[in-house]
Design brief:
By secondary structure, this protein is an alpha/beta fold. It is about 45% helix and about 10% strand. It has one domain: TIM Barrel. The structure holds 5'-deoxyadenosine (5AD) and iron/sulfur cluster.
């Protein structure tokens, strides 16, 4: 396996069967996983040093028109307590975030039908005017190409739209009421055309997903060359059809993150909240697999628990914007520190 890992490190590509072998071995043999992660960390350090970028995450609304089988915000979950921030509340989050040192704001929400262009454009423009030196990232799901273009012109720099599954059948099984994988990918391509730094990604261990499916995800990432890649374990939510499914495993999640780092050495890869929820040391384990971004929660504390895409989602301590000291301390313990710059994609 050592040879395969070194080949991946040098050439940033491997064929599908080699990737499959590597993933299988990395989850069965701790020496292989260790060597893979060490190699990924070396690659990340060449690009980013020991700095970890931070992004302030603002969860605008947990209303969602979609019905993704895995997610606690799905429209059929009538037990979810819904909320929506006002523009003033969002701006107050930005003000607090800027004061704390954040230079990227991530505006994330379910696909809330009230988030029309008319509602969003003045908000994005206002944030752009108030904080000319901060990056604006949107994570608002599938929209029209025209809308993506207008939001970009209003000042948004980046857009997160996980592809969720590169295999069309798996995608359809997880999103039986969605518009399909082809539409999802056409949105990602529209975002690329509009000049965004684009984030793709997927969960690890979701129902029906095999190692072969993950290999298809890796090949898609290699083909699309996204600037950002979000990867976390699937975590069951009690009020969804996948409530009784097991969570994704740590070893497969870390192996996948490490391989993505080697495929895309310049990519911005968060150590996700899902990983930090799976195990208490998840955030640092992600960084020690090649991740280089953390996204603390900047949402008002009154709504934080309501943005429950899965059970027991971490939003306090080092996951919270006001817990930056705790995060700095966690990073310090593994030899890293917070990098407060914007952290744009650079080749
Ligand atoms: N477990 C882990 N990740 C989830 N997501 C949604 N539901 C879950 C879950 N139950 C991920 C999806 C989505 C992102 C916002 O969170 O990949 O794109
Ligand atoms: Fe809505 Fe996103 Fe949850 Fe799907 S994953 S139900 S789009 S919030």
């Amino acid at each position: 396996m050592k040879e395969l890992i070194e080949q991946l490190e040098r050439h940033h590509t491997l064929d599908a069967s080699a990737l499959e072998q590597l993933l299988e071995h990395a989850t069965q043999d701790s020496d292989t996983l260790h060597y893979l992660r060490t190699t990924a960390v070396r690659t990340a350090r060449k690009q980013f040093g020991l700095g970890i970028y931070v992004r302030g995450l603002i969860e605008l609304s947990n209303y969602c028109r979609c019905n993704c089988l895995y997610c606690g915000l799905r429209r059929s979950n009538h037990t979810a307590e819904r909320y929506r921030l006002t523009q003033e509340e969002v701006l107050a989050c930005c003000e607090e975030g800027y004061r704390l040192g954040f230079r990227t704001f991530v505006l994330q929400a379910g696909e809330d039908a009230t988030h029309t262009d008319e509602w969003l454009l003045p908000l994005v423009s206002e944030i752009r005017n108030r904080y000319p030196d901060a990056a604006i990232t949107l994570s608002l799901g599938e929209r029209s190409e025209a809308s993506y273009i207008k939001l970009r012109q209003a000042g948004a720099d980046r857009y997160l739209l996980r592809h969720e599954a590169a295999n069309a059948e798996l995608y359809a099984s997880l999103h039986p009421y969605g518009r399909g994988l082809a539409h999802r990918l056409s949105c990602a391509e529209a975002l690329q055309r509009a000049g965004y730094q684009v984030g793709l990604g997927m969960m690890i261990g979701v129902k029906g997903q095999t190692v072969k499916h993950i290999v298809e995800d890796l090949k898609l990432l290699e083909r699309m060359q996204p600037e950002m890649v979000g990867i976390g374990p699937f975590l069951p939510h009690p009020a969804t059809p996948l409530c009784d499914e097991p969570a994704g495993t740590l070893s497969l999640t870390l192996a996948t993150i490490a391989i993505v780092r080697l495929l895309l050495p310049h990519a911005l890869i968060p150590s996700t909240t899902a990983l930090a929820t799976l195990i208490p040391t998840g955030r640092t384990e992600g960084i020690l697999s090649g991740a280089n971004v953390v996204m603390p929660n900047l949402s008002p504390s009154s709504v934080r628990a309501k943005y429950a895409i899965y059970e027991n989602k971490a939003s306090w301590g080092a996951e919270a914007a006001e817990g930056l000291a705790a995060l700095e301390n966690e990073l310090h313990n593994i030899g890293y520190h917070i990098d407060y710059t914007r952290g744009d994609f650079q080749r």
